[in-house]
Amino acid sequence: MYNISDKVILVDCDGVLIDWEYGFHRWMNSRGYQAQHPGQYEISKTYSIDKKVAKELVRSFNESAHIGYLPSLRDSIKYVKKLHEEHGYVFHCITSLSKDPYAGKSREKNLHALFGKTPFELIVCLDCGADKDEALLPYKDTGCFWIEDKPENAIVGERLGLQPILVQHEYNKEFNHPSIPKVYFWKEIYQMVGV
Predict the structure, then answer these.
(1) Band of the pLDDT at 4, cuts 50, 70, 90?
(2) CATH code assigned to 8-20+70-193
(3) What angle do CA 105, 19, 177 make, to 5 degrees?
(4) 60: which residues sit within 8 A by CB, 6+ positions away?
(5) Which residue ranges make up each domain of the chain?
(6) pLDDT tens across 63-83, in order?
(7) What pLDDT sits at residue 2?
(8) DSSP string covering 59-94, please?
(9) Which of 88, 122, 164, 174 could lock onto 154 through a cystine, CB 3.0 to 4.6 A?
């Protein structure tokens, strides 16, 4: 069982801590793909390609060396470090990346290079595109903050008694929920945590 205290913040990785989209689109461009409809969550829609092909491309990218060198998202470094170093928070990262252990090691290396080794008490790598229901179950009714970019996962968190916060992107800007706040910057998350 995980060590769950009131100083644990649950985080997704891509679109929350790390700018996965930037890295993925550059990788796709290097392979001759051009985004037809930017700002979509579904890669098949973004590139006007078959869903199965899109899923295989995402998996290939997530299991490539590129996954270890993605940039941070917006002001995430500054405020993750502030929450950790100044206020004692630790982060449990739950990411739908890949079950490949080397992809998981690359993700860990990337996070540690950007944020330092100590903020992340736990990094859980689920399969590419996997739902997070089961991974969130150990945190049921803890009231932990749960930072996500996918509305469905934020709703799962709320149903399990967590405090979801949705990081806004073009693909989720239309989502409105009375008890799930939407933020653009980590500064807003920092203020919501109430430090």
Answers:
(1) confident
(2) 3.40.50.1000
(3) 110
(4) none
(5) 8-20+70-193, 21-68
(6) 999 999 999 999 999 999 999
(7) 61
(8) HHHHTSGGGGGPPBPTTHHHHHHIIIIIH--EEEEE
(9) 164
**pLDDT tens per residue, range 6-29:** 899 999 999 999 999 999 999 999
DSSP calls for 97-159: S-S-HHHHHHHHHHHHHHH-SSSEEEEEEEPTT---HHHHGGGTTS--EEEESSHHHHHHHHH
CB atoms within 10 A of CB 33: 17
Q: Could you tell me the pTM of the whole model? A: 0.95
